[in-house]
Amino acid sequence: MTGNRGIAHLVCGRRAKWLVLGLWLVLLFLTAPFAQKLTDAQDNDAASWLPGSAESTQVLEISKDFRPEQIPAVVVYARDSGLTAQDRAAITADAAQLRQLTDHGIRGAETRGPVYDRQVDPRAAQIYVPITMDEKGWERIAPAVDSIRDVVGRGGDGLAVHITGPGGTSADFSEAFEGIDSTLLLSAMTVVVVMLLITYRSPTLLVVPLLSVIAALFTAQSLIYFLAQHAGLTVNGQSAGILTVLVFGAGTDYALLLVARYREELRRHEDRHEAMARALHRAGPAVLASGATVVLSMLMLLAAEMNSTRGLGPVAAIGVAVALLAMMTLFPALLVICGRWIFWPVIPHLGAPDPTERGIWARTGRGIAQRPRMIWVVTSLVLALCSLGLIQLRAAGISNADAFTGKPDSITGQEVSEEYFPAGSGDPLVIVSNQAQARQVGQAVADTEGVVPTSLGLPAGAKPVYEGQVLFEATMTAPSDSEAAKQTVERVRDAVHAVPDADAQVGGGTAALLDMDKATTHDNLVIIPLVLAVVLLILCGLLRSLIAPLLLVGTVILSFAAALGISALAFRHLFDYAGESTDFPLFVFVFLVALGIDYNIFLTTRIREEAAHQGTRRGVVTGLAATGAVITSAGLVLAGTFAALGTLPMVAFAEIGFAVALGVLLDTFVVRSILVTSLFLDVGPKVWWPHRLAREDDVGAPAEPEVTRSGG
Fold it and tell me: Where the protein is mainly located, per its record (predicted)?
């Protein structure tokens, strides 16, 4: 014990605290300028999201030999009463101007159109403008679409003009992601400030954890930037946004736990350096175990087939690891440097009574101890009932039209286009095959249900043949992001794969969506058991028990199912969302289990500590009394930071934010405070089996907290 406190003094000793602060200041001075460059290092092209081994990804790579990777923007013109001669002249003039564009990757010379919906008295026209993609991804598309908009305008006098197709939709997605880092940073910071004010009731104390977590975020962003630039780490808009939420949420949680223990020790020790050393010694193992759980759980995402999911793993793990390091070094050093006054106006003085010993959580624990079995049975049944909402879950992917919380121009344009043209126009199938079998492959595609037979052709600007292979496109009758279109892709693949020696493959936007769905299904089946195994092993090592970890993992699974069930009902009947993305259950599970288990770790490590001195049942009540307030505050902070994802105008982020926030609140107020507490009280000492604590006999021990032993 003395040796462990000696290690703690390396962080908060009289001289060491200044050394720690100096090292962090140097680190921030060297790295902070690179944090803002993380956006420039993001890779948002299609390959960074798609599963690497998928057929659509292979077609995407092969097609680069025929032409640069392109994404078409589709300009749609429509007038219900029919296009006038003046409309048609303006459309022709627009097409001529678009052919002259070359900025932001626009290949104006390859512009196709105008194409009219019918030869006589047309009501609508379309112009296809290809945009060349590069490593900048979305960053290039939005300016390109703006340039196109400058030419075609927004219509008027009854003529509707919209920019849709993959290019238009991607530009709207890009706009939704624009400023994501600053938006989430400000939202998360606001939540943290408000919750710290409520928790600490101190305007001065909240500054220390806030500065520490911001330092952690800048350091993590800088480190990830260097790895993205020089080590091939894939970072995209999704992982960069989630990084901010994780660092703020997890970092503040660790700060809350450490401050609570430090406050306890300040009431027992006059020297604040000794008080912090003891706080780190007592709370450190729980914080480290919680951080290790999150880091290792995130690294399990490396087993994913989806490139976007696999890339999120190390990004999130690095963020949480840096947050853990900052909260175990910089944060305690700053607290000790500031002294007791930082707690103003509620300053903990030597010998002051511990308010948790007679607080609401102490009374809650004593109340649960009266009938623990009935309480955990009823609580479990209620959570199981909530999980029945899972039958409303529609995690089969969502269309572009349903992906936004609002209705951007590209979606309106898509609806207008589908009214007059084949629904799949603008986002065709892409087929590659050997040249010798090209005619057979083309006929197989044309004969497939769901394909417009007359639409087969060579893409504009593409080489007719490359190294014995050919590439051509085909339009589908169904919207490219619909389930019917995915079924068409399946049929086309079956047809072309059956052509002998053709080596034919089918790609394109719809094929990519289909492959992503399949990869995510695989990832769900592989990663969820891996995360559970990691959590179970860490709990077994931390608690040196088998029964307690199994009970805790069981409660987390039940909490996850209930959160998902309630969320599904809310999405259907409250928010009116059309469905969920296929990776929605996986992300919610990983975040809920990895982060939600923190609260069980905080509680059960304190229970185990107290059980060694006053028996398991008394230890349960004391542990709940001592940790109840801080865990509740931590849960509210984490729920609030994830709820900040709802500020983004994208359904997938809003759904993840809502479900994780709800799950964290369930963990905080129901699972940890009621279910786990009642289970441990009912099972008693046997919860520690096979450790020697399981052999104690405290069946008759009164469930009252021992006032002389509340902090250890």
Answer: membrane
Question: CB of 277 within 8 A of CB of 214?
Answer: no
C-alpha 295/C-alpha 161 separation (Å) is 49
* Most confident of the ranges 154-158, 339-343, 381-385, 570-574: 381-385
Number of folded domains that form the chain: 3
The pLDDT value recorded for residue 700 is 41
Domain stop point among 460, 494, 514: 514
Structure letter (DSSP) for residue 459: P
My answer on whether 552 and 625 are in the same domain is yes
User: What is the reported pTM?
Assistant: 0.80
Dihedral sign (CA 640, 646, 652, 658)? positive
Q: Which of 291, 267, 290 is nearest to 279 (CA)?
A: 267
Backbone angles phi, psi at 524, to 5 degrees: -60, -45
> Is 608 found in the same domain as 502?
no
In this structure, what DSSP letter does residue 106 have?
Answer: B
- Output the average pLDDT for the chain: 84
Average pLDDT over every residue of 433-452: 91
Considering the domain architecture, whether residues 196 and 313 belong to the same structural domain is answered as yes
Identify the burial level of 33 via C-beta atoms within 10 angstroms of its C-beta, where 0-12 means exposed, 13-18 middle and 19 or more buried: exposed
Residue with tokens 């793993």: 313
Q: Closest by alpha carbon to 634, among 181, 213, 5, 21?
A: 213
Give counts: helices (H), strands (E), the chain: 24, 8
Length of the chain: 712
Check residue 698 and report its DSSP letter. -
* Mean pLDDT of the region 550-572: 92
Handedness of CA 277, 630, 622, 359 (dihedral sign): positive
Which string of b and e fits 218-255 if b means at least 16 CB within 10 Å? bbbbbbbbebbeeeebbbbbbbbbbbbbbbbbbbbbbb
Please determine, for residue 286, whether its predicted confidence score (pLDDT) is greater than 90: no
pLDDT at 64: 82
Q: Identify which of 339-348, 434-443, 459-468 has the greatest average pLDDT.
A: 434-443
Closest residue by Cα to residue 639 from 607, 614, 662: 662
